[in-house]
Specification:
- This protein is an alpha/beta fold.
- The chain has one domain: Rossmann fold (3-Layer(aba) Sandwich), CATH 3.40.50.
- It has eight helices and seven strands.
- The chain has a seven-stranded parallel beta sheet with strand order 3-2-1-4-5-6-7, with helices on both faces.
- Helix 4 links the parallel strand 4 and strand 5.
- The chain binds coenzyme A (COA).
Length: 258
């Protein structure tokens, strides 16, 4: 643990897509540092399994809600329930995402639309739904969205995810300006290749590209989920109070997409 114990005591956080992958690492870190955490995703079985694992492995009690980030009305209901259950929403982590590799010339309209709706529209829906509660956060509400360093360049085979993750970046910059007067900070973390995620397991390792990618990472290794979680805590805690509209890239200076 890199942070002082209890630094998030009294804070309430919602992590979208918090049952699996990077989201689960973020939940463990926020919960271990004292935050009350709520998680939302589509599959009830994932939520139950994750809640049990957080309790058994880390002694963290999370609240969970089933919901699809693509549905704005559902997200309003989910955020209202979380605000009641957790006491408020001080921290919103927009992490839920979908992606698959498909050359743009073969990508169906529905394939394009689906990823834009989950990644970009879902982030918008959750930010707007959580706004009334973020406004009430005593030390200023915090939004941290997960983008991707690949969105800063061309992302072959992921035009939908690249466009959505770029869109998230500008959305965070805009919310930083529009909602700054509410005390809300809006930032984004851009992961590079993080081990144990679908992005690395399915899109790199399964395709036999590990060595090729590692050669392009100056720090010589894939990142870990906790590297992303550490960045989230930095931005969501007192340490990040004067940071808004910013990107924090967590990629070992990776050159892999260029
Ligand atoms: N290649 C090409 N098209 C694909 C595809 C692939 N690998 N995966 C999905 N699509 C297309 C589907 O064919 C469909 O388009 P169509 O109706 O024109 O055929 C469209 O995308 C929607 O797919 P569907 O599976 O019905 O949507 P969904 O809402 O159930 O799930 C995803 C969307 C992105 C979550 C799903 O594709 C998925 O499970 N991806 C892998 C898991 C993942 O994304 N994890 C997060 C990693 S960041």
């Amino acid at each position: 643990m890199s942070f002082a114990p209890g630094i998030l005591e009294g804070k309430s956080a919602v992590v979208t897509g918090g049952a699996t992958g990077i989201g689960a690492h973020i939940v463990r870190m926020l919960g271990s540092l004292g935050a009350n955490v709520g998680i939302v995703s589509r599959k009830e079985s994932n939520l139950i399994a994750a809640a049990n694992a957080f309790k058994t492995d880390n002694d963290i009690d999370v609240k969970w809600q089933v919901g699809d980030v693509r549905d704005p009305e559902a997200m309003k209901a989910v955020m209202t329930s979380f605000a009641e259950e957790l006491g408020n929403i001080d921290i919103l982590i927009c992490n839920a995402a979908g992606n698959f590799i498909c050359p743009t010339e073969d990508l169906s309209w529905n394939g394009w639309r689906t990823v834009i709706e989950i990644d970009l529209n879902g982030t918008f829906n959750c930010c707007q739904a959580a706004l009334p509660y973020l406004k009430e956060a005593s030390d200023g509400g915090r939004i941290v969205s997960i983008s991707a360093t690949a969105a800063n360049f061309g992302w072959p085979g992921a035009a939908h995810a690249g466009a959505a993750k770029s869109g998230i970046q500008n959305l965070m910059k805009t919310l930083a300006v529009e909602w700054g007067s509410y005390g809300i900070r809006a930032n984004y973390v851009s992961p590079g290749p993080i081990e144990g995620t679908e992005g690395v397991d399915r899109l790199i390792i399964a395709q036999g590209k590990s060595e090729q990618v590692l050669e392009r990472i100056p720090l010589g290794t894939f990142g870990e989920g906790k590297d992303i979680a550490n960045a989230i805590v930095f931005l969501a805690s007192e340490s990040g109070k004067y940071i808004s509209g910013a990107e924090l890239a967590i990629d070992g200076a990776s050159q892999w997409v260029r």
